[in-house]
Each structure stands twice: as C-alpha cells, then as structure tokens.
C-alpha cells in the first residue's frame, strides 16, 4: 500500500467529520497560536533591548572603581578613589585592543539661563566619549584638546536642556549658561537620541571637558569611570584583559589581591538586560507548550473514540486486504493531519494575534521563522505520539470481531 | 474447468471459551472447483460462520490444511493472509458494509487502493466496469446513504468483483433484503456464475440452495450432506413470477 493512497484514505475519513475535526484541532490551534504569539512578544522585547544596546556601541567597555576596603569597611563605589587620570592615559595609549577611551566624572546640578533653569547632569569626558556612545553634534562643535588642557568652561548640551533653557527658539551655540555658579559657553548642541529602554532621557545632559569637572566642579583627583571601545566586538575579551593588566600594574596590586576596579562590557550588560525577557519568554513558552500537550491529548481522545466508532470500517478494510500496518498508518496520518492542520491555522492565528498586540498595545514583536518551524515539528511529533496508541489499537483489531461489532 | 479453487482437508477449529474448549469445526473436508455456485447451509451453531471465516482467510484452522487457489493458507501470517484476501477473495456481507458518506465508485475502489499495482486510472476504470457489471453504471457518484438496500448490496458485490477474485464469499447476502430485491441479487449472482465465477453463498435460508449448483450442509461442525443440485432454478423466472407491487 503506497503512501499516497493512505493519505487519500485518511483525508477522506477526516472530511467525513469536518466539525469534529475542527473541534479536535482547536486545542492545537490555541496551543500553537499562543506559542507563536508569546515567542513573538518575548523575542520582540529582547530584540528591542539588544538594538538599543548595540546602538550604544556593542564594543563598549566600562571601567569603574570598586571593591576597596578601608579598615575592613567596604567602600561605596562613589567614594572609591582608585581610578586616576594616569589609568585613563595608559589605557588610551598602551592598549592595542582599545581604539577610543574617555574618562568620566559626573556631577549633577541646576543649569540656568536667564529666567529658565533645569536640573541636569554634567558629564566630564573627552571628545572620544561622544563617539563611543554614539552621540552626534548637530550644531556647533565639540570642545577641543586645548579646552581639556585648560579646563575650559565650555559645554556641549543635549536637546532636553536646550528646550528648557531656550524655549523661544534662540540659537544656543555661543550663549553662556550657568551650571551651579560656574558659567559655561555652549560650543555645540547634540542630536537628539530619545529615551533608552530603561526610560532614561538620553538628551538631558551636558558634556564638558573632564578636567573642568574635576578641577572646577568636584575638586577631585580621581575618576568615576573610564569608558572605552574595543577594536571590534570580537576583541572585547582581549581588551578587557589588557585593561585589567594595566590597571593592576598601575595600582600596584599584588598577585592574588582582589581587583580594585570593575570592568564590564556591553555584551555582559546586554545579556544581563535580556535575561529577564529571556526568562519571561521561557515561562510564556512553557505555558503555551502545556496547552499544546493538552491539545495533543484532545487528539488522542478523539482518535480513540473514532477507532471505536469505526471498528466496523476497520474490519471491512482488513477483510478486503488492509494489513495491520495499513490501518496503523491510516490512523496515524489522520492524527498527524489533524495536528499539523491545527498547527498551520495556529501559526496564522498566532501571527495575526501578535500583530494585534503590536498595533493595540504597541509592544515590539518579532516573529522568528525558527518558532514557526518548531511549531510544525512539535505538531507532527504530537500527532504521531498521541495518535500512536489509538492507531495501534485499531491495527490490532481482529477482523472477525471488528466485522461483527455493532 | 477442473481447477480446484478451494480444497479443505480435515479442517478443525477449536475455541477456548473460559476453561472450556468449543469445537466449532470437527474435521471438514471438501473441494470446490472453479466455476461452482455452492451454498453452505446450516443452522446457527453449526459452524458455518467459522467455516466462512476460515474460507475467507480471516481465521486459521487449528489443524488440517486449506488450499486457496493452490496456496496453503494455514501457515501464513496475518499480513500474508491480508494480501491473499486482497487478491483472491471478494466478500459480500449481509449488512453491505459500505463506507458511510462515500460514493459508489469510491467504495468499489477500496480493495484496489490496498494493491499498489494499480494506478489511479486503472482503479477508476476497473471500478466503473465492476459497477456496470452489477447494473449500477449510472450511479457511480451516488453516496451510500442515497441508495436503497438492493443498490447498496449491488455496490458491495461490485466491490467484491473488482479485484477479479478467485472466489466470491457471500455471507447471508440477501438476509437484509425483501423478497423482490433478494431475487434481484440472486439473479445477479447467477449471472456472475454463468460468466464463470466461483461463488460460495453461506446462508441458513434453504430457498437459496435451489438456485445454486451444489449444497453443503453443516451440523455441529461436520458436513452432513454435500449434494449437487440436479435442477437449478432460474432466479430471473422466479423474479418475474413475483406479484407486481403497486406503487
């Protein structure tokens, strides 16, 4: 008996009971549909986080001070003073896996222009920082090396600050604003970057030379951090290792002593941030998978009833020459057809539902071909797995008994 | 036409019912030549159902030998017997056993579907031919629930004919039909017989025996008589003699 004939027989048997077939498929339809939708939502949020992070530079490495004890007391990160300007200079000049590096010294306070003022943050950095973080200057220019050297009172401001301080659309470049009590001349305005995934406004800031923050605002000799970028994403690990060696040497740490700094790469940050959404999608997928199994049991149930109901038909088929395995194949194909057809409808419904979620709730969604292929494979497996027992029962019927069955 | 289509040699069939052994067949031997129309008679409990199942290769005897068209059946396994049924036997049942919601042609095609030898076109052509042979050439696409009992039985006979079997086994094939339709079916069987087909008709109705060429009677698992019918009645005449029903 060839497969095409069996397929035709199974199809015919299913079409005789369309409504029941549809009800049976419903379990699978709902199961597959929810798997597709859940994965689309989970993948979507993960992807949007990843996109955001890679926009910030996927090869970014952040060095921060840390793990210092004074008399047994572990210090707060803000009080740790281990990172110095020399560390930054050595990383910039001696690390061959690092292309760009910038120290960071931050301060927050009130920016004032005329009658307007706004609370904002000042980032003391070098010009490289803008490249590392992907900021672009819209009007004017970045401050110069000379400005850094002389701790000049110049700044590059973000759009949010401009909007508040210059509500009437005045040209901000060249104007002098105050930060605390110190006047800063605006040399450039940043292109807007909007908010990041965590809801932080990335335009509410001012960039000034790091020397200016250290000497004129904070009056400190240490750095809050060093931000670097590796040559490319693949070399991040080497770059981290190199930076670590330089810092340990500079800080004269003995072999076996704990690092007094932390180095984190954007990749780590990315995996940290996506781990939550990963867990969510795993949970959602697990719930959906359970509904798929319930759907499978539904198929098994119906196939079982169908075998009993069609005992006579099975007897007839056997009497005219169907072998046990022909009957087995027929019922397996029926079960698999049901579950795969349910899968197809489920995939379509799942995609539609995902788009509805996208439109109505404006969630980011991403439908992967992987999840669609997986659904089909799972459906086939479910059909065969749950169809097996009833099909086996059908094929083991005694034709004499089956023919006599009423 | 001296070919032995069926040869039974001391067939015994025992069933275990609980702790008791029931001897359904206690040594049955006979041969049926090609082209015979044999009626197997017997009351219920005589073993005729068991004999039918054995002849139909649905069951294997406990002992004895059964040759169907020269092939020893007793030692065959289930799959081999299934294939043998598909190629050599045509069943006609009392309650037709047509597939529901299925057209006449699809029902007739069924045995051919289990034989990979035939292409789609061959299946169709052979089924049409079989349906024409039973006088249903104009009802190919009628579904089984749109037909009368006589028509359904004729579809079933077409299904039994379609694979060109060595023997047609009819199990009380007229049992569910009224007198007129029964005769119509008998006419059909006689026509098939005259075309050279071997037919075995199992029944408890002694009237049927008058239209066949040979009658084997069973009682308590043994053959008690095996007679050739010297004067075979013509079913067509009997049909014509029936009072015409008023519509």
SSE topology sketch:
The complex is a heterodimer of chains A (406) and B (247).
Chain A: H1 3-15, H2 18-55, E1 60-65, E2 69-70, E3 73-74, H3 85-94, E4 98-113, E5 116-125, H4 127-133, E6 137-140, H5 145-149, E7 154-157, H6 159-165, E8 176-179, E9 182-190, E10 205-209, H7 210-218, E11 225-230, H8 236-250, E12 261-265, H9 266-309, H10 311-319, H11 324-361, H12 369-395, H13 399-404
Parallel strand pairs in A: 5-10, 7-9
Antiparallel strand pairs in A: 1-11, 1-12, 2-3, 4-5, 4-8, 4-11, 6-9, 7-10, 8-9
Chain B: E1 4-17, E2 20-33, E3 37-41, H1 48-55, E4 63-68, E5 71-72, H2 78-88, E6 89-92, H3 104-113, H4 120-133, H5 149-161, E7 167-171, H6 179-194, E8 199-203, H7 206-209, E9 214-219, E10 222-228, H8 235-241
Parallel strand pairs in B: 3-8, 3-9, 6-7, 7-8
Antiparallel strand pairs in B: 1-2, 1-4, 4-5, 9-10
Alpha plus pi helix count of chain A: 13
Strand order of the largest sheet of chain B: 6-7-8-3-9-10
Q: Report the C-alpha radius of gyration of chain B, rounded.
A: 18 Å
Order of helices and strands of chain B: EEEHEEHEHHHEHEHEEH
Secondary structure: number of strands of chain A: 12
What value does the average pLDDT of chain A take? 86
Describe the sheet with the most strands of chain B: 6 strands, mixed
Beta strand count of chain B? 10
